[in-house]
Design a protein that fits this description.
IS1595 family transposase; alpha+beta; three-stranded antiparallel sheet; Transposase_Zn_ribbon; binds zinc ion; five-stranded antiparallel sheet; single chain
């Protein structure tokens, strides 16, 4: 989407709202976000009430786009600036919002991107927080999940591998000489099975960061996807392990849609419902070792 057509949808709050609404209901078929019932009653202010569970909602209820106090116009401009990789402080200046608001909006957007991934449910089961309006897991795992990264027809796929953890990576290195290297708390490996690298982020890798930690140049280092990701990592000067999967999914999306406008893709993600976390008590013990 070029700046001219963008200008049309961003020209008024109403036009921006209509643009986002276009991503909300397939074929304009509304249903209850709680129980998916289609029989609804119209109530005041454009809201609807579910005939089955009596939940009252509007078109954007329970969606990521409600996770931050932006107007629809602000969200649109935010997506454009995000697409252009504008620095956080610049975004704050342009939108006349605080730096903290920009960070919050980015977190909401990244969680919306992650929610679209086929392996999102596995990520939530490992203790990842789905997003605004959902309870936060009581204990965050110390390390990020392990991801396997593969390329398929030019597309990058970052798969959560729930059966692996940092200890398994140490084991592969020790017993199968799987080469690995690190960038701060982020550790990545030589190819493994169908993946051209495994990657994980967390303090459990501290021992290899101080010992014989670098196994030289790995195949991933010459891959465009990982080359760009490393540049991001270096610019960020460190990443919180719990946030690492969010960045990974953002880089995956940027790589896979590098020739397209990201605004409609991001808008569609933002208009998705925030998934429910696994039912209470189903969060696994964060100490997965
Ligand atoms: Zn309902």
């Amino acid at each position: 989407m070029g700046i001219i057509s963008f200008n049309e949808i961003a020209s008024s709050e109403n036009a921006a709202r209509k643009y986002f609404l276009g991503f909300c209901w397939k074929n304009h078929q509304r249903y209850c976000p709680r129980c998916r019932e289609r029989k609804l009653y119209k109530v005041l202010d454009g809201k609807r009430r579910c005939a089955r569970c009596h939940y009252t909602f509007h078109d954007f209820s329970q969606r990521f786009i409600r996770g931050c106090g932006f107007t629809f116009q602000q969200w649109l401009w935010f997506l454009k600036l995000f697409e252009l990789n504008v620095h956080n402080q610049q975004i704050a200046n342009q939108l006349k919002v605080s730096y903290a608001t920009v960070l919050k909006a980015k977190d909401v957007l990244r969680r919306a991107i992650l929610a679209q991934a086929p392996d999102a449910a596995e990520y939530y089961e490992l203790g990842g927080w789905p997003g605004p309006g959902r309870p936060r897991p009581e204990d965050q795992p110390v390390d990020s999940p392990v991801f396997g990264i593969m390329e398929f027809n030019g597309f990058i796929l970052c798969d959560v591998l729930p059966h692996l953890d940092p200890e398994s990576l140490f084991h592969f290195r020790l017993n199968f000489r799987l080469a690995m290297t690190c960038l701060g708390q982020v550790v990545y490996t030589a190819p493994y099975q169908q993946y051209f690298m495994l990657v994980c982020c967390g303090p459990s890798f501290a021992p290899i960061q101080h010992l014989t930690h670098k196994d030289g140049r790995l195949p991933a280092d010459s891959h465009e996807f990982w080359g760009n990701a490393k540049q991001h990592l270096q610019r960020m000067r460190g990443v919180v392990p719990a946030h690492f999967p969010l960045y990974l999914k953002e880089w995956e999306l940027r790589h896979n849609y590098r020739d397209q406008s990201l605004v409609p893709i991001l808008a569609s993600a933002l208009c998705g419902f925030v998934p429910q976390p696994p039912a209470a008590g189903e969060y696994p013990n964060p100490d997965r070792h």
